[in-house]
């Protein structure tokens, strides 16, 4: 696949070019790493526009920290959909695992067995039985604590100066990864763990989960901010000289280059590559006055260089772009997509590296920049791109059949992005499986994204009503776990399921959904709607007031007991919450027992049984604490403090108010 029309310019790899114009930022990062001044945050965030050099600066910091005696671990988020949740942290943990003897790992893992959720390959080193299953919100908190505790302990145990965790491209990270990153930022202070991360300051959608995380870290003064600005004209000239191995560049050319590229280092590099590939002599002063024929945008410049590659190399790069940055580990998959052998791909890789489209990094290959992949994707017509996604889904499914779990998300996304060419049944099946894998990883937002995609696919390709209802139930439950801000979505999912059940004439199923809706609507959340909750309870009553124990009946009586709190009907609420407690005990639902016990306590208090109410609520908190359930524990402690305060007993109320306010588990609780 060699012999392109224009001989590629062979230059130093971009990551080997001397860093230009970042002396101030490097000095600030060095001072941060040394802890100067005292009390600096454990996190440094490097922000800037695409192509401004964030990754390059992070790589330079990494190299200098390693030379200075730090243990450096790296991970990155990747452009596009289909990546497993927590991937940047998984990459870092896996790197530590691969570099650390088993004897040193075992004591660290003993205190953090939940880490096997992200690294199943270390399960045999944990030794103890797996931790008991908790409620979803408690599970995720335990995972965050385990990862944080593991890294902090590893940093304390290392003979190095500490651990520097380098996380690249946070603007592409999923919400679960960003929540874990936030947890790390809060817990790493006063430890030997340092975290340096990069993110884009432009081109990030307003609803991106990174933005509230950044706002929280700023509010809590938990990070140092390093903002990268475009290069000055003088710095642009120095970069061009470095790229072309010249001692200097004609000032008029530098002036035009700086104006055309606005000092963006990556754009400078791409324009220089294009000029040289087109045969321009940069030492000729007349070049500065020429028209060049170069488009204004960096993607267009890259695109014009892609057009000069031979067709076979372009086909290889198109397949690689559809696969994303993981293509460097999937050459057999690319060969299957292109219906060829692996060996001929080596020539295409060589040509792409020589042209600066790909770069070699530690024995693997990746795109020179995310903008390079963007330009490649724009070079593919929509039908051709959809066909490549379908071929990619089938090829990955075939290549990784023995261990498809880590690739479920990628396969699901490729099937979905195949559009009208997709196999509807397989697309739905993989979207469901990918959501289940995300749920097992406690990444509830990512699970919802896959299941929402499955719903859309069911609309387009058809599905049985009971399949839609089952999926809508799972989505409603996952939305509640994600936090109060998703309760409205939970209601929408349950209402859609209810409509399907009613249309099918399924009375018991509809009653169970009425009870679910009543419980969500009666909750003390922004979507609280007591009149609507009451209507749903009245609709469910003929099926659920009497009968055998079951989760639907438990939801019915839990909602009745809660609604009685807000409507001030303590006698009826006392009976409803008593039944709720009994049902929860019979079904083994300890956390639901806590919520009903807290309601029962409230009704006891209203009826004058103060000592009994306070004692029961204290027991409810103890059970919630044992379950490590942030929401239930918050409810029990908060209600106890409020009740004591209303009794004019502030000194007794204060410890209850502090009890959950001081709990680390509340940092990521939906109630925070």
Write up this protein:
The protein has 672 residues and is mainly alpha-helical. It has 30 helices and seven strands. The strands form two sheets. Strands 2-3-4-1-5 form a five-stranded parallel sheet. Strands 6-7 form a two-stranded antiparallel ribbon. The longest helix is centred in the N-terminal third of the chain and has 22 residues, at 136-157. It starts with 22 loop residues before the first helix and ends in an 11-residue tail after the last helix.
Summarize the model shown.
Helix content is 61%, strand content 6%.
Terminal Cα separation, in Å?
57 Å
Are there runs of 5+ residues with pLDDT below 50, and where? Answer: 1-15
Number of extended strands:
7
Number of helices: 30
Give helix % range.
55-70%
Strand content: 5-15%
- Given helix and strand content, the structural type is mainly alpha
What order do the strands of the largest sheet run in, or round the barrel if closed?
Answer: 2-3-4-1-5
The major sheet is characterized as:
5 strands, parallel
């Amino acid at each position: 696949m060699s012999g392109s029309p224009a001989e590629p310019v062979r230059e130093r790899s971009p990551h080997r070019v001397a860093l230009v114009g970042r002396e101030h930022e490097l000095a600030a990062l060095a001072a941060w790493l040394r802890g100067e001044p005292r009390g600096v945050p454990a996190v440094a965030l490097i922000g800037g526009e695409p192509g401004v050099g964030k990754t390059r600066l992070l790589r330079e910091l990494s190299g200098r920290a390693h030379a200075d005696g730090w243990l450096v671990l790296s991970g990155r988020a990747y452009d596009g959909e289909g990546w497993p949740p927590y991937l940047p942290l998984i990459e870092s943990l896996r790197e530590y695992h691969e570099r650390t003897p088993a004897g040193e790992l075992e004591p660290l893992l003993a205190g953090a067995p939940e880490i096997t959720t992200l690294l199943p390959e270390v399960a045999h080193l944990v030794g103890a039985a797996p931790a008991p299953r908790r409620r979803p919100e408690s599970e995720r908190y335990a995972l965050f604590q385990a990862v944080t505790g593991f890294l902090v302990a590893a940093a304390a145990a290392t003979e190095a100066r500490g651990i520097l965790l380098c996380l690249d491209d946070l603007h592409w990270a999923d919400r679960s990864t960003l929540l874990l990153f936030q947890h790390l930022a809060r817990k790493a202070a006063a430890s030997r763990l340092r975290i340096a991360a990069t993110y884009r300051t432009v081109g990030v959608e307003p609803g991106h989960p990174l933005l509230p995380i950044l706002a929280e870290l700023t509010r809590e003064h938990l990070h140092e901010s390093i903002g990268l600005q475009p290069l000055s004209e003088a710095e642009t000239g120095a970069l061009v000289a470095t790229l072309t191995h010249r001692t200097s560049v004609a000032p008029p050319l530098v002036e035009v280059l700086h104006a055309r590229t606005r000092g963006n280092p990556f754009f400078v590099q791409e324009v220089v590559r294009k000029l040289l590939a087109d045969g321009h002599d940069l030492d000729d002063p007349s070049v500065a006055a020429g028209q060049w024929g170069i488009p204004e945008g960096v993607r267009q410049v890259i695109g014009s260089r892609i057009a000069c590659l031979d067709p076979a190399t372009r086909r290889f790069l198109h397949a690689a772009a559809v696969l994303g940055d993981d293509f460097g580990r999937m050459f057999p998959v690319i060969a299957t997509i292109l219906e060829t052998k692996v060996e001929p791909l080596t020539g295409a890789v060589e040509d792409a590296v020589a042209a600066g489209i790909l770069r070699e990094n530690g024995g693997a290959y990746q795109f020179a920049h995310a903008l390079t992949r963007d330009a490649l994707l724009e070079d593919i017509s929509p039908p051709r791109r959809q066909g490549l996604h379908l071929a990619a889904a089938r090829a990955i499914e075939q290549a990784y059949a023995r261990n498809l779990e880590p690739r479920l998300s990628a396969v699901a996304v490729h099937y979905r992005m195949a559009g009208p060419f997709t196999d509807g049944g397989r697309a739905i099946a993989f979207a469901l499986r990918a959501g289940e894998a995300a749920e097992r990883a406690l990444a509830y937002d990512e699970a919802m994204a896959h299941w929402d995609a499955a719903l859309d696919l069911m609309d387009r390709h058809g599905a049985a009503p009971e399949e839609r209802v089952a999926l809508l139930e799972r989505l409603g439950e996952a939305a509640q776990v994600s936090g109060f801000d998703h309760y409205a979505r939970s209601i929408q999912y349950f209402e859609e399921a209810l409509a399907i059940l009613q249309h099918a004439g399924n009375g018991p199923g509809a009653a169970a959904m009425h009870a679910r809706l009543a419980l969500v609507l009666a909750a003390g959340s922004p979507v609280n709607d007591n009149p609507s909750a009451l209507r749903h309870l009245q609709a469910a009553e003929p099926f659920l007031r009497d009968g055998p124990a079951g989760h639907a009946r438990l939801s019915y009586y839990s909602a009745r007991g809660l609604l009685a709190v807000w409507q001030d009907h303590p006698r009826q609420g006392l009976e409803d919450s008593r039944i709720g407690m009994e049902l929860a005990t019979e079904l083994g639902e300890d956390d639901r027992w806590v919520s009903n016990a807290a309601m029962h306590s409230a009704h006891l208090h209203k009826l004058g049984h103060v000592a009994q109410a306070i004692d029961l609520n204290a027991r409810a908190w103890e059970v919630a604490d044992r379950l490590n359930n942030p929401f239930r524990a918050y409810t029990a402690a908060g209600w106890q403090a409020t009740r004591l305060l209303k009794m004019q007993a502030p000194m007794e109320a204060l410890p209850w108010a502090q009890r959950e306010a001081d709990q680390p588990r509340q940092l990521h609780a939906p109630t925070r």
